[in-house]
Write a structure and sequence with these properties.
Layout lengths: L1 H8 L5 H7 L4 H9 L1 H22 L6 H10 L6 H11 L38 E11 L2 E10 L4 E8 L4 H15 L6 E4 L3 H4 L1 H10 L2 E4 L9 H13 L9 H16 L13 H11 L1
Parallel strand pairs: 1-4, 4-5
Antiparallel strand pairs: 1-2, 2-3
Helix pairs in contact: 4-6, 5-6, 7-9
Length: 288
């Protein structure tokens, strides 16, 4: 234990001073350090701190696979089993997603589109398939509503909007943002649930202007839009949005930072080879 203490503090104080203070010989310390089992133990201590930093940076959501990918980016190749062992020993647990209430109001007389997406949540190129949805977000004043547009090619959030009321303008604003950022061509497949906002005349006109094909989930089939369900579960988990985190302004800033800074640019996705959406698009662009 004395030698382990010296190893842990050798970068703060000289080895000679530590050995003298703890009344052990320098030669004894180096003899201990040269033993393979002790060197491996020392490496575990250092590696655990790196893993802790990665885990905390992920807001407590990275398990061994994503931690492993982050370590590879740092030039460290570590087995998944070793990472799992060290995380368990350090008490680093992965937070689990929860189910949240639906916002869908599908009892209306507006036209309903066929389910053209048919649970095919992959795309070969950007702006081929977009999916969208709305969720509740608790705030100090009550609720806000968040509409999001995701490109299924990279799972990147290409459009989003937040409002205090649940009206068609909310989803149109999210779609407008996506259109301005991505400039999709004719034939984009756009998928949503059967909510009245997405079935409205105003929204259908917006899709016609985009020359997009409208697709809708079957009534009561949340798995028809599973990519968005998963995204919202992740957002609420990582931002602790099972309860209010501030007023409307605070919460909007929180969501902005999470989507634009963390999720799109940093958060690793298993379906993208443990790259973030932005890095995945950049990587694929270099292959073309």
């Amino acid at each position: 234990m004395i030698y382990q203490f010296i190893e842990q503090h050798r970068h703060q104080y000289s080895i000679e001073m530590l050995c003298r203070t703890l009344d052990v010989g320098v030669s004894g310390y180096f003899a201990w350090w040269r033993r393979p089992e002790n060197r491996y133990q020392v490496e575990d201590v250092a590696l655990t701190e790196i893993i802790r930093t990665i885990h905390e940076g992920s807001r407590g959501t990275y398990g061994a696979p994503r931690v492993q990918a982050a370590l590879v980016d740092e030039g460290k190749r570590v087995s998944r089993a070793r990472i799992t062992r060290l995380m368990k020993a350090a008490g680093l647990k992965v937070r689990c997603k929860r189910k949240f209430r639906t916002t869908t109001q599908s009892n209306h007389r507006q036209p309903v589109a066929d389910n053209l997406l048919n649970r095919e949540f992959t795309a070969e190129q950007p702006n081929q398939k977009w999916t969208t949805d709305i969720t509740y977000v608790p705030v100090a004043e009550g609720w806000m509503y968040l509409a999001v547009v995701m490109d299924l090619f990279s799972r990147k959030i290409v459009g989003w909007a937040m409002r205090a009321t649940l009206h068609t303008e909310l989803v149109v604003a999210a779609l407008d943002m996506a259109q301005q950022i991505r400039r999709p061509g004719r034939g984009l497949l756009h998928h949503s649930d059967q909510g009245v906002q997405y079935a409205s005349h105003e929204y259908r006109q917006a899709l016609e202007r985009l020359k997009a094909l409208q697709s809708m989930s079957r009534k009561g089939e949340c798995w028809d839009n599973a990519a968005m369900e998963s995204f919202f579960a992740t957002l609420k988990l990582e931002l602790n949005l099972d309860k209010a985190q501030g007023n409307r302004s605070d919460t909007r800033n929180l969501v902005f930072e999470w989507i634009e800074v963390f999720y799109n640019r940093e958060r690793r996705h298993s379906s993208l080879g443990y790259r973030s959406p932005t890095r995945f698009e950049e990587h694929r662009a270099t292959l073309n």
